[in-house]
Specification:
The chain has a domain at 31-90. It has helices spanning 3-10, 16-46, 51-76, 78-88. It has 90 residues and is mainly alpha-helical.
């Protein structure tokens, strides 16, 4: 009996793609928590009574939005594809 037969018989065989998909899901989950924590101070400032703090929060929200979009593009690989296309033209 080979080790591969033992693994298949035990029912715990997982393919590499399953492992990669679980790892990607873990990265996306952790990233979502980090982004939510970074948006929290902006939301608190946005709903503040102070007008100055609210105006600063609006400006920070704009920058945070652009940062979040760039982060999402980087995580999904879209940013790499765009830079590769601009750099090589293919």
């Amino acid at each position: 009996m080979h080790i591969s037969e033992l693994v298949v018989q035990s029912g715990t065989f997982t393919s590499v793609s399953d492992i990669v998909n679980r790892f990607f899901a873990l990265i996306v989950g952790v990233s979502a928590v980090i982004v939510a924590l970074l948006w929290l101070p902006i939301a608190i400032g946005f709903f503040s009574e102070d007008e100055k703090r609210r105006a600063e929060a609006k400006i920070r929200a704009k920058y945070a939005f652009f940062g979040t979009v760039i982060f999402i593009l980087a995580i999904t690989g879209t940013l790499y594809a765009i830079v590769y296309y601009v750099a090589t033209g293919t």
